[in-house]
Amino acid sequence: MEFRDRYDVVVVGAGPGGSVTARFAALNGARTLLLEKRQDIGSPVRCGEGLSKAHLHEAGIKVDKRWLANEVEGAHIISPSGYRLTISEKHAGNEVGMVIERDIFDKVQAFEAAKAGAEIMVKATVTDVIKENGDVIGVRVDHFGERFNVKAGCVVAADGFESQVGRWAGLNTRLKGGDIMSGLQYRLTGVEVDPAYCEFYLGNSVAPGGYLWYFPKSEDTVNVGIGVMAKRVKEKADAKTYLDRFIEKDPRVRKGKPLDWVAGGVSTSPPLERTVAPGIMLVGDAARQIDPITGGGIANACRSGRIAGEVLGEAAQAGDFSLSQLMKYEKGWRALMENRLYRNWLAKEKLAKLSDETLDKLIDSLADAGVEKLSVLAILHAVQKKYPELVKDFQELL
């Protein structure tokens, strides 16, 4: 088979996970190619654009005014009947702290990868992986109608939760209906929201199996979005019905003018059983490293991307892309986040079944207890004190 070029690392997908992987692979000596199927990295935006500052340093990312839209002090968690829990940005989880311009964020990460020495090719669609004796050894690429093959020591699938590359490589990436959220978001301007706080609204009457969010980009512009469990709605348009109904009832945003809107799906599944096989590695959403409770994946993709890049750089330096070498990535990212992801998936499964009345009690008990940290354990321990009957189904998480 003829190859047009050969690289140590070929990364498929220039989202945050892909770009951070490419950056650290290149920094650590790997000849790296980053492929993006779209002509414009970062577009279209399919994201609520909320991000915590807490984990960015782990990925070697500094806050940049180019992509920072707004810094927030914390978040309000609001029950169906209006009970409110307020938590600080420090303890609010992976999606609170900053509201960003996601398209610019992605471009900056790709720029950092290029600066580190990675080559970048846009409008480059990977149409299949190439195997030899069952091992992945490269990819087939379609670039402006030109079709060619690229050989790689390792192919990194960073192509989102729909990851075709992982599936082509033979990894099990199947999703259950209960682990897919349908999302829709408007960016509205001409509104009157508190720019210091994100807001999360819970309840099956609000967002079946999910939640509705306000991420303020300024005092007069906000991202208003919804995520609903795919199997809990009858039609794809149901998410829009719920969102529009909620907006119409809120005078702060009712007269807001839409600047854009985005729709898409997100996985809220447990992590994959395997994210590495001979010649292939999955990063970010493709590896199901999304937080199952919030649906947020930027921070985790960046964190796992750095681990992947450093492992691949080491592999390139040693000339060793064996499975045992690549498994260092598998062990590294799991040690960093797997327990939390799996616990949050279990909690998501339970929470999705709670009635609005129970959610009212839940938020009431948390507000009364003065919970500071938004974690599954902190929530359950606080609820156990006031409404012990609510946590009987969560005993395995305590």
Give a description of the structure:
This protein is α/β, with parallel strands linked by helices and 398 residues long. 30% of the residues lie in helices and 28% in strands. It has helices at residues 16-27, 102-116, 164-168, 238-249, 298-318, 323-351, 356-369, 376-386, and strands at 5-12, 32-36, 50-51, 68-71, 74-78, 84-88, 98-100, 119-122, 124-132, 135-143, 146-157, 180-189, 197-202, 211-216, 221-229, 257-267, 276-277, 280-282. The strands form 3 sheets. Strands 1, 2, 8, 9, 10, 11, 17 and 18 form an 8-stranded mixed sheet that branches. It has a 7-stranded mixed sheet with strand order 6-5-13-14-15-12-16, with helices on both faces. Strand 9 and strand 10 form a beta hairpin. The protein is globular and about 65 Å long. The mean pLDDT is 90.
